[in-house]
Amino acid sequence: MRLRSVLAIALLLSAPALARAQAFNIQAAAGPTLVDRGYSVAGGAGWSPWSRVTLTLDAERTVLSTRVTSDGRGGGSTFRGGAMVLGAAGVRVSLFPPHRLTPYVVAGFARGRSTPTVNDTFPDRVTNTVRAVFAGGGVQAPLGPHLAIFADARMQVGTEGGETLAVAPLRAGLRWRF
């Protein structure tokens, strides 16, 4: 472990351009979900080893509304809805450096828990483990040397309590680069 640290520091010191490109950032975002009615909020931090690549850690909360649909013949279905709180780790890769308007792609994985809605139709309180992978894309626009606005859409697919989970948040927010 100590050898890896020494090698990493030696690499950074031997490549001044690489060392100058490093940056930390914090971000916050919110927005609706695209398929099921609901909303998503997220906050996190990132580290950029290169100007176009950022490794991210986020905490996010997504709330989906209960949905009842009827087929008009006495049949129908009910979606329970509920809240998910996830910790996510990912990578964001931009086409251009952060001081320019740039599109980007994002991918990673998330883990957390969900608490489905309790109501007359679903009276039992349940807590489920959630595991998911996600991928998506967005655009970032600089507002100054450190501040940028961004918007992205992503698709999260995974499992929740033994069932398949798919959520598509569309979020916009602010990012501060140190």
Question: Mind explaining what this structure looks like?
Answer:
There is one protein chain. This protein is mostly beta strands. It has a single domain, classed as Porin. It contains 2 helices and 11 strands, in the order ααβββββββββββ. The chain has helices spanning 2-14, 16-21, and strands at 23-32, 38-50, 53-64, 67-70, 76-79, 82-94, 102-116, 128-142, 147-160, 163-167, 170-177. The two termini are 28 Å apart.
Task: Give me the secondary-structure topology.
Blueprint: H1 2-14, H2 16-21, E1 23-32, E2 38-50, E3 53-64, E4 67-70, E5 76-79, E6 82-94, E7 102-116, E8 128-142, E9 147-160, E10 163-167, E11 170-177
Antiparallel strand pairs: 1-2, 1-11, 2-3, 3-6, 4-5, 6-7, 7-8, 8-9, 9-10, 9-11
- Supply the helix-strand structural class: mainly beta
Q: Can you count the beta strands? A: 11
* The CATH architecture: Beta Barrel
End-to-end distance: 28 Å
- Low-pLDDT stretches are none
Domain count: the total is 1
Round the Cα radius of gyration to an integer and report it.
Answer: 20 Å
Mean pLDDT: 87
Helix content: 10-25%
Keywords:
single chain, 178 residues, mainly beta, Porin, 8-stranded antiparallel barrel, two-stranded antiparallel sheet, 2 helices, 11% helix, 63% strand, elongated
Brief account:
The chain is mostly beta strands and 178 residues long.
